């Protein structure tokens, strides 16, 4: 994984406490609660109707630090924000007027956690937490990383001021983690997420810097498409064709130079666009990931060879969307 750029990084000689940097002494009549999320399983069939309306019908599993962080930086931050409002395991101790700080694992350090939300709890009588975001802490959301080791199970909540005051700030990221490029091995984007990331400067810079072989997965039926990006602007240029002018569905071959492609450079994708499924099907069901990346000097011939290798491995000519 790529290490994210930092604005501040602590050292043993000059640690800053989480309590002090956020000036938590000002909360004289409220309980400050820190929730450290470290394991979530969301199984819709096991949930109440109210919960399913909020979180949807897609199962989600976050069982490791890497899975948590991957989901967050790849555009699932809204799901995370909603998930933490469910009064389930680790959340039943949030009550009206509490000041809550929610964290997810930050996998680049030892026992480090990324601040995901800061809010006042407005109720304690429903299954869904009603929250009021604390806008004074907005500059720290997705940027503030703390160091804290807890050995007491899943999703612990800490309220003891003496414990909280010992929690130190490990890093402050230069830009929110959700906007920073996490590394080529952690890219997994829905169509809507891809649209957003192609406008984020850190993502644009990194996707332009490498050529690569990628896979598009139809999450509705499991079919896949393997493609290659070997033009001047690398992965960025090829992936941009999928979101900029999808209505232009001129017939092109799979191996067209991506610097010249317009719209969807794949016949089966074109057929989806022209069918009654339309562009909406792609927007709702397609996922974009990277299989391999290469430096800008890598010859096109070699990248095409690797593309063919992955088509054979995933058998996308027979079972997927690749025509050749």
What is the overall silhouette? globular
H/E element sequence: EHEEHEHEEEEEHEEHHEEHHHEHH
Largest sheet: 8 strands, mixed
The radius of gyration over CA amounts to: 22 Å
Number of domains: 2
**Percentage of helical residues?**
25-40%
Low-confidence stretches: 247-262
Measured by DSSP, the beta-strand proportion falls in 15-25%
The structural class is: alpha+beta
The residue-averaged pLDDT reads: 84
Distance between the termini: 33 Å
Q: How many strands?
A: 14
Q: What is the tally of helical segments?
A: 11
Care to describe what's here?
- This protein has two domains: 6-173, no CATH class; 187-319, GIY-YIG endonuclease (3-Layer(aba) Sandwich).
- Strands 1, 2, 5, 6, 7, 8, 9 and 10 form an eight-stranded mixed beta sheet that branches. A four-stranded antiparallel beta sheet has the order 11-14-12-13.
- It has helices spanning 18-21, 49-55, 65-83, 161-164, 191-197, 201-208, 234-240, 267-274, 278-285, 300-314, 316-319; strands spanning 6-9, 32-36, 40-42, 60-62, 99-105, 112-121, 131-133, 144-147, 157-158, 168-173, 188-190, 211-218, 224-229, 286-294.
- Helix 6 (201-208) crosses helix 7 (234-240) and helix 8 crosses helix 9 (278-285).
- The longest helix is centred in the N-terminal third of the chain and has 19 residues, at 65-83.
- Strand 5 and strand 6 (112-121) form a beta hairpin.
- It is an alpha+beta fold and 324 residues long.
- The protein contains eleven helices and 14 strands.
- The radius of gyration is 22 Å and the shape is globular.
């Amino acid at each position: 994984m790529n290490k994210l750029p930092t604005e501040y990084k602590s050292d043993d000689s000059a640690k800053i406490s989480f309590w002090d940097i956020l000036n938590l002494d000002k909360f004289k009549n409220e309980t400050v609660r820190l929730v450290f999320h470290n394991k979530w399983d969301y199984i819709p069939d096991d949930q109440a109707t109210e919960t399913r309306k909020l979180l949807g019908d897609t199962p989600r599993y976050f069982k490791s630090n890497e899975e948590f962080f991957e989901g967050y930086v790849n555009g699932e931050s809204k799901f995370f924000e909603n998930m933490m409002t469910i009064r389930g395991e680790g959340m039943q101790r949030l009550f009206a007027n509490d000041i809550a700080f929610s964290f997810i694992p930050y996998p680049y350090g030892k026992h480090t956690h990324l601040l995901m939300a800061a809010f006042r709890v407005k109720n304690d009588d429903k299954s869904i937490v009603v929250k009021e975001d604390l806008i004074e802490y907005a500059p720290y959301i997705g940027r503030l990383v703390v160091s804290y080791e807890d050995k007491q199970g899943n999703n612990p909540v800490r309220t003891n001021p003496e414990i909280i005051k010992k929690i130190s700030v490990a890093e402050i990221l230069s830009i929110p983690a959700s906007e920073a490029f996490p590394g080529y091995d952690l890219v997994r984007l829905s169509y809507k997420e891809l649209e957003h990331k192609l406008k984020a400067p850190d993502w644009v810079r990194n996707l332009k810097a490498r050529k690569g072989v990628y896979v598009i997965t139809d999450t509705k039926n499991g079919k896949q498409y393997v493609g290659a990006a070997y033009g001047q602007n690398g992965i960025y240029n090829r992936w941009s064709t999928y979101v900029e002018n999808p209505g232009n569905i001129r017939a092109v071959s799979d191996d067209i130079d991506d610097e010249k492609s317009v719209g969807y450079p794949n016949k089966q994708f074109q057929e989806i666009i022209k069918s009654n499924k339309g562009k909406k099907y792609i927007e709702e069901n397609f996922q974009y990931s990277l299989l391999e990346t290469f430096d800008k000097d890598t010859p096109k011939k070699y990248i095409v060879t690797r593309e063919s290798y992955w088509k054979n491995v995933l058998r996308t000519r027979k079972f997927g969307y690749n025509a050749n």
